[in-house]
Design a protein that fits this description.
Layout: E1 6-16, E2 19-29, E3 32-38, E4 49-53, E5 58-61, E6 63-68, E7 70-71, E8 74-75, H1 81-93, E9 96-103, H2 108-123, E10 130-133, H3 155-164, E11 169-174, H4 181-190, E12 194-197, H5 204-213, E13 217-218, H6 234-241, E14 246-249, H7 258-268, E15 273-275, E16 288-292, E17 295-300, E18 303-306, H8 319-328, H9 334-349, E19 366-369, E20 375-380, E21 383-386
Parallel strand pairs: 1-4, 1-5, 6-9, 9-10, 10-11, 11-12, 12-13, 13-14, 14-15
Antiparallel strand pairs: 1-2, 2-3, 5-19, 7-8, 16-17, 17-18, 19-20, 20-21
Helix pairs in contact: 2-3, 3-4, 5-6, 8-9
């Protein structure tokens, strides 16, 4: 009879749903968390265990990115399965243990074919689902999407992509003011798929109608939507004020002014913010020229812009940088940052029974951070993706 080894991670500040435990420990048994509690000796009846002293460090849940297009030089939109896994590995090394693959606007048949490939990787457990960003968005707010390929959000087309995803579609970004927009929102809501308002030119009133129809997410709030006006408040105010809506924020210092980030965060509250990367191929890879769907992108000093027109084209952000920036620059508590990078997106995606917090029975997905919030270790399902660099 063989005995399996239990890993005990001790001495760290452990962020639990109930708060932070100083000098706590996390017990990992196989692929699962067996315990997360104050630091006491392991039970004498427990299986043989290996203890790792993480004093002076933090242990937080693995990050959950619900909006990411690629990384490590590879794209979820156009890469082979092997290249998609390369992008996944890049983000995992930065603490993102759960991620949704986001597409960009392409021909419908191309997107349907893409969905089939990504669905296989979801079914294998490498991805948590698919997010279709485009083609159902406004040409007025297209950002880094090809205008010639945009189309109205016809429910029949939305259904086509849902079917192509074989049950793995998690979210669609829609300009809900366009013909078919509200009907598409209702279709998605009825099928348990997130309807997100984004790349939109909607008015305040049109956005309220979309929320009432079932939209529950704001795709990268502020970006690719009208600015707030005192007589025409637009979608931003409608999305921030409604308790049913979770707002995505890209906290890279480029997409949002720090004041705009803090305004949204404090208005929506910690329970209604999901920090995302919206990262493209260059994340974790470097400056240079890339393709984002059919469009050419240049990344210079870490900022991605379309070669033609200069629009921001996603980000080169990884969630560990967003976490660190949120705590050290924006003044968020570690607990609130954890909610926004782990618990909230896990809940939205319907995977919070497995990930998003450090609780017994959940997957052993966790990140070890040093006192300056730099990543020093990443564990996914009990295996070290990034070996702990401590001592």
């Amino acid at each position: 009879m063989t005995t399996h080894q239990v890993q005990v991670l001790s001495g760290a500040q452990v962020v639990l749903p109930t708060g932070t435990v100083d000098g706590g420990r996390v017990i990992v048994d196989g692929t699962k968390i067996a315990g997360a509690l104050p630091g006491t000796a392991a039970s004498a009846s427990a299986p043989a265990h290996h203890t790792l002293d993480l004093s002076g460090h933090w242990i937080v849940p693995g990050f959950v990115d619900m909006h990411v297009h690629g990384g490590g030089g590879a794209s979820f939109t156009s890469g082979t399965a092997e290249e998609v896994l390369q992008a996944v590995a890049t983000h995992r090394a930065h603490g993102t243990t759960t991620m949704v693959a986001s597409t960009v606007t392409e021909e419908m048949d191309v997107l349907a074919s893409r969905a089939a490939l990504l669905a296989e990787l979801v079914q294998q457990g490498d991805l948590a689902g698919i997010h279709f960003e485009g083609p159902f968005i406004s040409p007025c707010r297209k950002g880094a999407h090809s205008e010639s390929l945009l189309r109205d959000p016809d429910p029949a087309d939305v259904r086509k992509l849902m079917d192509a995803a074989h049950g793995t579609a998690k979210m669609f970004t829609l300009a809900t003011e366009m013909p078919g927009g509200l009907d598409s929102v209702r279709l998605l809501a009825e099928n348990g798929v997130l309807a997100a308002v984004g790349h939109t030119d909607a008015t305040y009133e049109q956005t309220v109608a979309a929320i009432d129809a079932g939209a529950t997410v704001a795709t990268h709030l502020y970006n690719a939507m009208p600015a707030v006006g005192h007589r025409a408040p637009g979608p931003i105010v409608a999305l921030l004020e409604d308790e049913r809506v979770t707002v995505e924020l890209i906290n890279d210092g480029t997409h949002l002014h720090p004041g705009a980030f803090r305004f949204a965060y404090h208005h929506a509250g910690a329970a209604r913010v999901a920090m995302i990367t919206d990262a493209m191929d260059a994340a974790g890879f470097g400056d240079g020229f890339y393709d984002l769907g059919p469009l050419a992108v240049e990344v210079r000093e870490g900022v991605a812009r379309l070669v033609e027109g200069g629009s921001i084209a996603g980000s080169t952000l990884t969630l560990d940088k967003a976490f660190r920036r949120s705590v050290t620059i924006d003044g968020l508590s570690v607990e609130d940052a954890v909610r926004s990078l782990s618990a909230n997106p896990a809940r939205l995606l319907g995977v919070d029974d497995r990930v998003g917090s450090l609780e017994p029975g959940k997957d052993a997905d966790l990140v070890v951070l040093d006192a300056d919030f730099a990543v020093k270790g990443v564990m996914r399902r009990g295996a070290w993706v990034l070996d702990p660099q401590v001592g």
